[in-house]
Automatic annotation (TrEMBL), chains A, B:
This is Beta sliding clamp. InterPro entries: DNA_clamp_sf, DNA_polIII_beta, DNA_polIII_beta_C, DNA_polIII_beta_cen, DNA_polIII_beta_N. Forms a ring-shaped head-to-tail homodimer around DNA. Residues 1-127 form the DNA polymerase III beta sliding clamp N-terminal domain. It holds the Pfam family DNA_pol3_beta_2. Residues 137-251 form the DNA polymerase III beta sliding clamp central domain. Confers DNA tethering and processivity to DNA polymerases and other proteins. Acts as a clamp, forming a ring around DNA (a reaction catalyzed by the clamp-loading complex) which diffuses in an ATP-independent manner freely and bidirectionally along dsDNA. Initially characterized for its ability to contact the catalytic subunit of DNA polymerase III (Pol III), a complex, multichain enzyme responsible for most of the replicative synthesis in bacteria; Pol III exhibits 3'-5' exonuclease proofreading activity. Belongs to the beta sliding clamp family. Residues 254-376 form the DNA polymerase III beta sliding clamp C-terminal domain. Keywords: Cytoplasm, DNA replication, DNA-binding, DNA-directed DNA polymerase, Nucleotidyltransferase, Transferase. It comes from the Bacteria. The keyword NAD does not apply.
């Protein structure tokens, strides 16, 4: 193996595959990055067995030479050292050569590194995925759908299935649902699909977070292929594999109330900032809980009380308060997370009494819904 | 106590005094910020007993009203909560009022905080410092002198005196010296002083770091007052007190070689970056040590070898290599720290053999000197 490559492109690809490499793996070779040079270009692979990322550097792109393959071959290099080294090389051009005994020579300017590599044959094979069940989502929509749901997954391993986001494809619509059993985030969108199959899979929240970081903000289509235990996201020169979570995702549809008793419409930012301020004193006390009350004349009050430190209250003028009077307590963090996930300047909140879950959504958009369980304090 | 104040100015002053507030103090009231309102303005104080910072907000500055004192008085508020609250207040104007029992009411827009305060009489008094022994240093020079020396203080409490920087004032010259006994940084400058007294004090490195962060990048003069056990820095509307370290600072003058056997002149950035690259592989092995060798034709080589991972070597074309051939090993970190502290594109290194300390300095500036002890490996 011998090739000459543009340093910045190599650095970029190494950083992409590094997102899958963990230093805490039970399989030592997975602390490495696999490099395979063929006449088409250079392929880098990183994996922690849950997530695998493959980044491809073609020999040429838009008429510019990116990598000149002088001899094909493959090797695995320690990810941590290799990634730090390529970032700090002195020149724009790097030469990488495989010598005997998996020794790799990296040259740039007058610097020469000799790194001990491993046999690429020892590196685990990526899942083989047949591309029958494929659908396409624009990158920016995909990232938005992840952002608006993934924060609500459970961080506890008590019910492992809840650490993932449920992706359901039915009737040409993709529905993403996450819940940690105290709150739920749901986002749906119409998407392009070639067949009318129905799926329901659960993708680990961690995988979706890493995927989101690695994808550029474009509207290029990402191909998504779902199999029994893997999902594959295919973007330009990039493959992102994640295992799926085993088990049945709970049916969340009956959690979502269809009626309400008190409804408010309020400016998103004012509501969010008032809760943020009230939560400053609530952090010390029980679980970051703030109180919400309807007042007269379309006013609401957000308050919190922490006997040792002090108390805070703030009134907000809403657009509208309709229905019954209400006093309710909730986790400031959960409501703030939900409000940050929503777009638009105004939101509506639909309450069904102080002990029942309430719904936050945009006034002008029914593709996203945030549900939160109150905290019993009154 | 009652006053109305511009939020941004209050936030700025609170952040200044917060630099002295520690959450790990044995004196509970020092977790608070003292506020004193007089007809002249508002004074905030934070202290961890080693460092004390006083920030003054005048009623008016450049014709703009900053704080309107409606009633004078004083109180101590929990620093952590108070600083978070003022940052997040909804309006540009804040009203702060002391009610009974040290309860403080903070109002901004429709938000109202009630915070439990403490009696300001319980707060320790700041040191009383007579201003006899004063000298003046421009802020930017002061920050530079700190930056170029403070990194070399010892982080170990084995010899507490070495955790500080020795400041000596003699013959109208200020000399700052720091050493952790493996390396030494020295910077001197001519300064304005009203009398011809000579001082030698040791200022804790931590104090100088905090001072540097709090001072703006101006060339306004800072008044420096030295007493037996305190130093006071006076900038505009700001007092910064630090205790001094007890004990005699070692005489470092005889450490600095006056002759040399091998001298090089080299581009600072090329030398720094080559050492940085070589250190990538040296981190794992013994103490981050890299090797330096003179070659022929004005070339030098930086190398490092870590049997498990690999090796690296790099040649650099110097401006000049003069004197004996040399192979020497040193801590990459110490040399990189020293190089970063130097200004200018070229530096000279003067060696006196592989077992003797060497000196790095600018080719065109003798006010700064960095000395480093080699590591015995050859």
């Amino acid at each position: 193996m011998k090739f000459i490559i543009q340093r910045d492109r190599l650095v970029h690809s190494v950083q992409e595959v590094m997102k899958a490499v963990s230093s805490r793996t039970t399989i030592p070779i997975l602390t490495g990055i696999k490099m395979v040079a063929t006449e088409d270009g250079l392929t880098l692979t990183g994996s922690d067995s849950d997530i695998s990322i493959e980044s491809f550097l073609p020999t040429e792109e838009d008429g510019t030479e990116i990598v000149e393959i002088q001899q094909s071959g493959s090797v695995v290099l320690q990810a941590r050292f290799f990634s730090e080294i390529v970032k700090k090389l002195p020149r724009d051009i790097v030469e990488i050569e495989l010598a005997t005994n998996h020794l790799v020579i990296i040259r740039s300017g007058k610097a020469e590194f000799n790194l001990n590599g491993l046999d690429a044959e020892e590196y685990p094979h990526l899942p083989q995925i047949s591309e029958e069940n494929m659908f396409k989502v624009p990158t920016d929509l995909l990232k938005t759908m992840v952002r608006q749901t993934v924060f609500a997954v459970s961080t506890s391993e008590t019910r492992p299935i809840l650490t993932g986001v449920n992706w359901r494809l039915e009737n040409g619509e993709l529905i993403c649902i996450a819940t940690d059993s105290h709150r739920l985030a749901l986002r749906k969108a119409k998407i392009d699909t070639e067949n009318q199959e129905t799926y329901s899979v659960v993708i680990p929240g961690k995988s979706l977070n890493e995927l989101s970081k690695i994808l550029d903000d474009t509207n290029d289509l990402v191909d998504i292929v779902i199999t029994e235990n893997q999902v594959l996201f295919k973007a330009k020169n990039l493959l992102f594999f994640s295992r799926l979570l085993d088990g049945n995702y709970p049916d969340t549809s009956r959690l979502i109330p269809t009626e309400s008793k008190t409804d408010i419409i309020v400016n998103t930012k004012e509501f969010l900032q008032a809760i943020d301020r009230a939560s400053l004193l609530a952090k010390e006390a029980r679980n970051n809980v703030v109180k919400f009350s309807t007042l007269t004349d379309g006013m609401i009050e957000i308050s919190s009380n922490s006997p040792e430190i002090g108390k805070v209250s703030e009134e907000i003028q809403t657009e509208e308060v309709r229905g019954e009077e209400l006093k309710i307590s909730f986790s400031a963090k959960y409501v703030m997370d939900a409000l940050k996930a929503l777009e638009g300047t105004e939101i509506q909140v639909n309450f069904t009494g102080a002990m029942r879950p309430f719904i936050i959504r945009n006034t002008s958009d029914d593709t996203i819904l945030q549900l939160i369980l109150p905290v019993r304090t009154y």
